[in-house]
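Tutorial handout. Part one gives the primary structure; part two gives the three-dimensional structure as tokens.
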Amino acid sequence: MQGFTKIALIPAFEPADNLLNLVVLLSDAHFQVVLVDDGSGENYRRIFSASKRFAEVLIHETNKGKGAALKTGLAFIKRHYPEDSIVVCMDADGQHSVEDAIKVAQAAANDRNSYVLGSRSFCGEVPKRSRFGNLVTRFTFKTVTGAAVSDTQTGLRAFSTSLIPFMLSIVGQRYEYEMNVLLKCASKKIPIKEVEIETIYFDNNEGSHFNSIKDSFRIYREIIKFSMSSLTGFAVDYGFYSLMVALTAAMSPSVSVPLSNISARIVSSSANYAINRSFVFKNKDSAAKTAIKYFTLAACILAGNTLLLSFMVDSLGINAYTAKIFTEIVFFTASWLVQKIFIFGEKPNRNKSPELAKTE
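Part two.
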């Protein structure tokens, strides 16, 4: 562990007394410790005051959120520490051991272009909400980015200080910030590496300040936006499809169903493209460039959708309205992945160094 400075960054809100012990152990392991008091108040001042012997203590007068606390610490590190340092972000509740902090720091030092996660195996006695939450976010992250990460909720993360400008540019003030970092790393093609760490929980994780409703909404906001966009598109599509089926009822189903489906998709895809480009993915490429790719995708999905729909109605005898709903569900995930990765996704500049490409 020689040759570089390793910095432990700990955001803390109303911490337990064991935080001081963690700070001391980190200092003994030759970490520079930056501790951010995120508006904990007078009742917790003694813990932070005692920590000043072993750490730089930064203070938010009011609670601003984990993301804001991390950014405060990162901005401080950028100003006061060497550029070749390694930052290790840790939780204040004792879930991360010093040994594991050393492991992720070494992994980040070995590959300074990567973003390193200390990933838990979730073996043994793990709180149900933590196990379930990780399963959901793993699936969501895989769906959104196409990248597989085994522990999206870990707070133990390490990276080179050269990535700090990139980290500071990412939106998010509370728990959603950490998920946004992963999403941005995936979209910028920054390697996400995982190092297995010990799974540690105290008192069934009761010390966590994570709000299951508000913070989960913030974390899943991106997939929710796409879902709402798709729901709007589906409402237009299904409404026009139903109208066309009714108007062409005198025709054979082999003609009526594909005609209705194609007509409805032409109308709905135009609306869906505008919403996804401007609101969901906030893509800044020229409309012509993304439109060609989007409507090529729409044509391919329409072909597959129509074939499946016709097969279900003509060959299986399924009601035309029920079959339409089923086919839309089948093609939803495929549409999301292609749009996120290939159409509206951000592309790194391959002619620049990794750090410059990441921070544009």
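Part three, for discussion. Residues 222-343 form one domain. The chain has two domains: 6-219, 222-343.
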